[in-house]
Write a structure and sequence with these properties.
about 30% strand, 25 strands, about 475 residues
Length: about 475
Amino acid sequence: MYDDKFNDPFGRRPEGNPEEPVDQDRTAASEQPARAEEPMTPVEPLAGGASAEQAESRPELELPEIPETPAVTASPPVLYDPPRFEPRPKEKKGGWGRGWRLAAGAVALVVLSAAVGSGSTYYLLKEHLASQPANYQQPAAPGGSGALQPVAQTVAEVGASVIPEIYNRVAPAVVSVYVESYRGFYRSSGTGSGFVVDPAGYILTNYHVVDGAQRITVQFIDGETMTARVVGKDSTSDLAVLKVDPGDRQLVAATLGDSDRVQVGELAIAIGNPYGHAFTVTAGIVSAIGREIVEPTTSIPGAIQTDAAINPGNSGGPLLNSRGEVIGVNTAIEAPSQWSGNVGLGFAVPINTAKEILPTLMAGQTVQRPYLGVYLEDVDQWYARVLGLRTAEGAVVTQVVPGSAAEEAGLRSPQYDRANRLISADVIVALDGEKVTNADDLVKRIQQRKVGDQVELTVARDGQELKVKATLGARPTDQ
């Protein structure tokens, strides 16, 4: 053992009187008689102040044998550690954070562009949830060669040959939407777009175009205007259906395509009312598919991304393919700020999403969405440490809505001590036996179910795994 008193790492005491300090320099000098006739050769000092000759006069140190270290056997991974009272990093606090996602909604990455009834296109913040293009495969070149073959026409040439014909055919089905709302003496107005989906007078547009509007007027390409009313709306998909009385007018309905067949790189054409400039046509390509638009009450999976110019007022207008079929409803753009215009990143609701709920909206009925009734956060490294989890995966339940399916299933809100330190929380780690990676993963999979479906949730709580079953309810209209 190491003994500080004798300052020797091997624990040996100096010879002689153990209580009397040894003057090694003095002893060495007395053993060597001085030789004045010979010049003294300087000796390089050794570490600790002793010379080489002095070192030679000392007995050799015998080092103790070091026993071989036995092989260390890896300990099994710890499933659960007791809660560690670690403060939440400051960057996790403030505002709503990420903990206000509903299991029938998603985190807010979309910001409404203006006040109620503005009719403007959504704006996306710079940081937005955007998955990779879905199901992309490199097409094989003709003849099995890996080299790309030259195209006969450029995109501009192809567009120039078909866009005029498409515009002349589809524009009569497109309308400019003007909305007004009143609050006392204050009057607000906005613009948007829409298109006829049924000659009986049904027009499809965005929910955010007409939300809160008290007066709605639509204008056709020939200048005729009609008063419209909302017959159905769904904030989750950001879609709404208007109804006008066509009278003797023969309305032209747009042809709805199949958004599941959309391919990256194909022609994309938008017709709408940007900044009040009615019946403007812009063109580009489909930049990506499988994007996602999410907002507190809106979740649009599979959105189509395009570089066709889309600006405030284009919301609700059609996005067309090279055959003149509607493949999407223009709804959002990404911009550096709320006051910026198009930067080449526009997004449209897939038309297949609209086709699924159109009969319900046209009938004036409410679209029912599956609802679990929990607020969620991703399991990050902080949660994993504090809750004693093995991995930073899963969805932390930050609040359970009273009376919801989650409460009936036995899920509970987090528990804190008197110092407001987190000591326990439910973490959903699997849905129907399949691993849940994060909160968004759980949200998407809940949305794929139907109202009344029963799901099995695997929950990590205080070091144990619990399996509970929940019967999904209908999402409240105010959620």
